[in-house]
């Protein structure tokens, strides 16, 4: 069984000559304890492509010291990490399955093997309070790290260094900062590496630099060198050279000799003048060619700087895949709101794949959208019941005492606790299925080798504006459909019934509003002045859709709460309890649904100017 604690520490790089200063004068520190030396050996495990390290996660098997065992370190917040510790056991070649389960969504089905070893001689000095409590520990580490070969035949890479860690035990971060300041004054430097493993595997994490690819056009159209004559210039000089009279003896007569000398001088002058003229022509041509080449290079640089539609969309996909990965980790380590965050990330990915079909080949992405929808459906019951039961408990607490008949609050609390336990187990089970792990592999493949269309190579601004315009127009049509459905109701269907065409139409409006929001969030950095305008037109659309989601989200929540009122009320009645209060709660939730609908129709006209601002063609 793994135990968990939060590790809050600061790391510093120091030289071999560094001397630990006297820290007894740090505010809050009453005394400094005797240093204790530990010899630590740790083997680090990861996939061949270092999936854990790239997600800022480390998995090690450590021996020596006071905390021998398997350590899984997870990112938490700035300056803090969550650490799950499990007993050593007998496994050495590969981590036990139970140790890997929390990070299954990251390693997926790739084997985790040893990638590095660390040998550390650690000198720990405790900082004590007046009552003897340990406030913090200062660890002076002499480290030898060995990066194991990534492929057969590669050499191991050994790195040695010294660093100092200050870890909180029973103190506060103010103390941590004060100790850090003393170390810096004494010559320490804040470490650039968040973890020892990052330093050891720095070369592999950086990856090889991509090979430079020379543009073929540059080879074919090099500018003419001003120092070399063109073919035409050589031709003209050759023609004149061919007219040169072969050197012959001058005539013997005085007049004939003078005439021949004059003729030869005139010809030499003509040749020199033609050469001078050609040189000027060559220089002008070279200057023109150089200017054209510079203009062409500047235009290529300008076009290269303009973001392409494919680059923007793939970057958005990568960001949401990272968000899904973080949320997956939250669910597996029982962090509150994890299920909700998985659903949000899956929904955003679906929206990006649907809205940006002009950029991504839908023959490759439609099946992925279906799988993302499956994930949302698998987790929907868990999340919806969690939110709804919490709301109903708050609603019961707000009722006059005389309107709460029987153990209503206790029954709702019991249902919530049972739902939390069963829901987390169901969520983890769903996220551990081969189907889900295959989906993750597919998503990573899409990001690594995106199925781009021809439009993906076009400037992002025009393509993204067109996509956003289409999603907004789609929303507007769905609102028109909902309005028609409202007026078409003939009274035969109870208003507010979950299956009425009007209710279904409003549900589609809510989903379309989410797609508009997520589409706009991808487009905003490009369309709102390169991200410089925080309140540009596109971010205005995002804010508008948040308002729409709040109103129609409340209405959708009542679909679940009303059903819970019915089922829990029936269970209470079957147990011999008074079920009247559940009927009252149902009525209150039905009224909330109707009010949400009125709020939406009052809100919608106010959103028109914002939406119309992005539907006009640029």
Write a structural description.
The chain has 618 residues and is of the alpha+beta class. The chain folds into four domains: 3-206, Hypothetical Protein Pfu-838710-001; 224-305; 306-380 and 415-458, Four Helix Bundle (Hemerythrin (Met), subunit A) (Up-down Bundle), CATH 1.20.120; 459-618, no CATH class. Helix content is 57%, strand content 15%. It contains 18 helices and ten strands. The protein has helices spanning 51-54, 97-100, 104-107, 173-185, 196-200, 202-206, 216-220, 231-242, 254-305, 309-332, 338-355, 362-397, 408-430, 434-448, 460-488, 501-527, 537-574, 580-615, and strands at residues 3-13, 31-32, 36-46, 58-63, 69-77, 80-86, 113-128, 134-147, 157-168, 189-190. It has an eight-stranded antiparallel beta barrel. Helix 10 (309-332) runs antiparallel to helix 14 (434-448), helix 12 (362-397) crosses helix 17 and helix 15 packs antiparallel against helix 16. It is flat, with a radius of gyration of 37 Å. The two termini are 60 Å apart.
CATH class of the largest domain: Mainly Beta
Largest sheet: 8 strands, antiparallel, barrel
In percent terms, what proportion of residues is strand? Answer: 5-15%
Number of helices: 18
Overall strand count: 10
Walk across the major sheet and give the strand order.
Answer: 1-6-5-4-3-7-8-9
Q: Any idea of the CATH topology of the largest domain? A: Hypothetical Protein Pfu-838710-001
Helices and strands, in order, run as: EEEHEEEHHEEEHEHHHHHHHHHHHHHH
**Span of the ends, CA to CA:** 60 Å
